[in-house]
Write a structure and sequence with these properties.
about 100 residues; mainly alpha; Arc Repressor Mutant, subunit A; 2 domains
């Protein structure tokens, strides 16, 4: 990024409205991007995201789609279970040596 330029962030509602101008109203992406002061490439990315999953498009900063949130939780749970398993293996090894 060039010095002095800051990265703009756009809210989900803004993105959704911009996409709907192209999809529902039939306006060109170039025209909408220019009118909103948004890079045309970014608008095309928003359109792609919206078409892939209209319900969960643009979840926001730090927010995940429900299936991604579930996946994150399952991975965390799997790590916990692996850690518990490793602890139990060590405990079995310790108690096995004590009995001999």
């Amino acid at each position: 990024m060039e010095a002095g330029k800051t990265r703009r962030s756009y809210g989900a509602e803004f993105k959704r409205d911009a996409v709907k101008l192209v999809i529902d109203r039939g306006r060109s992406a170039r025209e909408v991007a220019k009118g909103l002061g948004v890079n045309e490439t970014i608008l095309y990315r928003w359109i792609k995201q919206y078409r892939e999953d209209p319900e969960n498009a643009f979840p926001g900063n730090g927010n995940l789609k429900p299936e991604d949130e579930e996946l994150r939780g399952l991975r965390r749970e799997l790590e916990d279970v692996k850690e518990e398993r490793d602890i139990l293996k060590k405990a079995v090894g310790i108690f096995s040596r004590v009995r001999q």
